[in-house]
């Protein structure tokens, strides 16, 4: 039998994005239910952002200490892989979501455990672990916050093998002797460096190069660091087939070459998780899901929303949480009759935040922090753009470490004299990124930005050097 319930808002997916949209509508006076088939808190909490960064941080601290005379001499041991893995596990609460479940209850949000599927207009059917079902009817909105899923390339032999995705890599109980990483994107490169520093022999096979969405000067610093640390990195190299021999993965990479490793991590991108959630039942194509700036799916009659990775705009947790807050506000405003039917009636800044001022960090060592558009992206968008770039060589970087190596770039809209993109590469540059984000989102005029004086001696003094080189 199926139990029937009615509620204001149904949110499918209880990751960080789903939690935020549910919390937002409840704060605005509506009722909400979260539906989750896995751990409450989602991918970021248990298999992505938090555990991957926890794997990277200890080795980054160790290298930083070794880069400063006086501290270097105090470092007498090596990285303790067991302790690193234990600390990683502490950040996932040993993959126990009871604390997240408690937060959901304390926020006044209902929680249903099970697999959700759209079954009609404003209707969701939930199948529980015991086979029973519950049907919910939403008064105002159904929100898809189902995230993304790994994209697995059609490589001969791969489908039959027990390879790792990022889930297995971030939750591993021990460090393999050797690891092959298929893919040169953010997740693959971060985990490659993490495991190499934990003692694995790591080989990266990147068909399209390393970190191709970032300026080559920035990604080049990371590539140089990986190779200097002993990682084998094959760029512009395609894997033609994969097999197992004597318990080891063997990857054929062309021209008679092969890579052998104990474990294989496939990290070749992700795509929106839209299959199996019933979109066909309401006449929508799962492969062509679109949304407006409020998160609303325009072809679903005004009640269906998509936020975070499933929305297909930006696959970043912080950006998804921003979208969730905006969408929660829009749902509540429409329910209360204070928001029109059109996205343009909403906020003039959502497009800026979602498309033209997205901050992102690669947590390798060195890091890359970027917000907005590259020079090529800006010009493709029709912007009369210029770039100014230089090495990061200021008093603050010299104090940071004796071997500090970094690079910085600003992309300027020459017609409006505002920044449309900023990139930093180097140790700890992520801590400078929010200032760049404010400058891009706020469209701070360059002649005004000139008067934002960076403190001496900090790495942020690179802002002054960039403006000086630009000609301010």
What does the secondary structure layout of this molecule look like, with pairings?
Blueprint (H helix, E strand, L loop, with lengths): L1 E11 L3 H12 L4 E5 L5 H5 L2 H18 L14 H11 L6 H9 L3 E4 L1 E6 L2 E5 L5 E12 L3 E3 L15 H5 L7 E5 L3 H12 L3 E6 L9 H13 L3 E4 L5 E5 L2 E5 L5 E4 L1 E4 L3 E3 L31 E3 L10 H19 L14 H7 L2 E4 L4 E6 L2 H6 L4 E7 L3 H6 L6 E7 L4 E9 L6 H9 L4 H4 L12 H9 L2
Parallel strand pairs: 1-2, 1-6, 2-3, 6-16, 8-9, 8-14, 9-10
Antiparallel strand pairs: 4-5, 5-6, 7-15, 11-12, 12-13, 17-18, 18-21, 19-20, 20-21
Total count of helical runs of at least 4 residues: 15
Shape: globular
CATH architecture of the largest domain: 3-Layer(bba) Sandwich
- Ends: how far apart? 72 Å
How many extended strands? 21
How would you concisely characterize the structure shown here?
The chain has 472 residues and is α/β, with parallel strands linked by helices. The protein is built from 15 helices and 21 strands. Helix 7 links the parallel strand 8 and strand 9 (201-206).
